C-alpha cells in the first residue's frame, strides 16, 4: 500500500483491491446532488411540459440503472449485486433546482458508496439531457456522500 490508498500495489500501480478475506456485512450508502436551472425549466418539469417526457420518472430510472452498472463506468470498482437502489428526485423548495437522493444497499464484502454517487450523477445527467434544449445553462453540482454504514470503517454521516 502506498500513501494510504489501497488501490495501489507495491509498485505504485493501480489495482482492484482483493476483498475476499473481508467479512460480509449489511452496507448502505446515501448520496445527494442537485441540478440547478432556470425558474422556467423548474416550472416546465413541474407542469409536465418538457418535450422529452416525464423528467423525474426517467431520471429516477436512469439513476437506478446507473447504480447497477457502476463497475462498468468506474475503473477498479467491484461488480456488486445490489439488494436495492432507491433514487428520489424532487423540486427544491429553496432554489431553482431538482434535488436527487440515492440510497443503495447490499450484503457484501465492500461498500456501495460509488453506486450511490453514480446513481445521483446519472440521474443528474439525464435531467440535463432531457432539458438542455430549453436550458443549456443548467449546473450539476453538490454531489456528495451523506451517509455510509456497514463494514470495517463503520458509520459515516456528513456534517
Automatic annotation (TrEMBL):
CDD domains: MoaC_PE
Keyword check for Lyase: yes
The organism of origin for this protein: Limimonas halophila
GO biological process: Mo-molybdopterin cofactor biosynthetic process
Function field: Catalyzes the conversion of (8S)-3',8-cyclo-7,8-dihydroguanosine 5'-triphosphate to cyclic pyranopterin monophosphate (cPMP).
Record pathway: Cofactor biosynthesis; molybdopterin biosynthesis
Keyword Lyase listed: yes
EC number of the protein: 4.6.1.17
InterPro entries reported for this sequence: MoaC, MoaC_bact/euk, MoaC_sf, MoCo_biosynth_MoaA/MoaC, Mopterin_CF_biosynth-C_dom
Subunit structure: Homohexamer; trimer of dimers.
Pfam short name (any one): MoaC
Protein name: Cyclic pyranopterin monophosphate synthase
Family: Belongs to the MoaC family.
Keywords for this protein: Lyase, Molybdenum cofactor biosynthesis
Binding site for substrate: 76-78, 114-115
